[in-house]
Amino acid sequence: MKNEFTRTVLFGMVAGIIATIVMDAFVAVAMILLGNPVTFMFSFIGDVASTFFSQLNISIAGGVPLGFLIHYLLGLGLGGLFCVILSRTTRLKTDTIGKSILLGIAYIEIFSQPFLVTAPLVLKMSGPDTLQWYALSTMMHAFYGTVLGVLEHYRNVILAGMPKRVTA
Which of 15, 39, 150, 158 has the most CB atoms lying inside 10 A of its own CB? Predict the structure, then answer.
C-alpha cells in the first residue's frame, strides 16, 4: 500500500510538471499576443513573492528566477496532491475522461485562489488590472486542470506499463 501511495504521489508530481509546461506554452502565446515578453508571468510571480516577503521583513530578490521556481514548485506539488486526493476519495473516482477534466479544472481553480488573491493585495493593483489578472489566470489554470485531469484519468494505464519494484 505504501508503494502504491508513493507511485501515486510521484505520478501526480510528474503530471503536475507536464500540465505546467503545457499551460506555459499557452501563456507564452498569450504574452506575445498581449505585447509582453514571454517571461512576463515569471517576473510578475517573482515580484509578487518578493513584495509579500518584504512585508514580513524578509529580503528576497524577485523577478524571473524566483517566479519560475515558485511556479514550477506549485505545479509539482499541486499535481501530486490532486492525484492523491482522487486516489483516496471514493466519491471522486473518475469513470469518464470528462469527469476527470472537470475535477482537474475545479481543483486548480479552487486551490490557486490563495495565491491569486495575493497579487492584487500586495501590489495594490487597479480594478482593471485585477480583472485582467483573474481572467488570464482562470484561462491558464483551465489548461493546467485539463492536462492534469487527462493524465489522472489514464494514471492506472500509465502506471501499469511501468515496472514495479519487488521488495523482499
Answer: 15
The answer to whether 12 and 78 are in contact (CB under 8 A) is no
Question: Are residues 152 and 100 in contact, defined by beta-carbon separation less than 8 angstroms?
Answer: yes
For residue 37, pLDDT beyond 70: yes
Question: What pLDDT score was predicted for residue 157?
Answer: 79
Range of the domain at 117: 2-160
Give the separation between CA 100 and CA 118, rounded to whole angstroms: 28
Sign of CA dihedral 108, 19, 70, 94: positive
**What pLDDT, on a 0 to 100 scale, did the predictor assign at position 93?**
79
In a domain, 64, yes or no: yes
140 neighbors 23 (Cβ within 8 angstroms) = yes
DSSP for residue 90: G
Number of structural domains the chain divides into? 1
Do the domain assignments include residue 165?
no
Cα separations in angstroms, 129 against 49, 135, 136: 18, 10, 11
Using alpha carbons, list the distances in angstroms from residue 104 to 10, 13, 27: 17, 14, 18
Please check whether residue 166 lies inside any domain of the structure: no
Distance CA 107, CA 15 (A): 14
Residue 120 covered by a domain: yes
- Give the rounded percent of residues in the chain with a pLDDT score beyond 70: 95
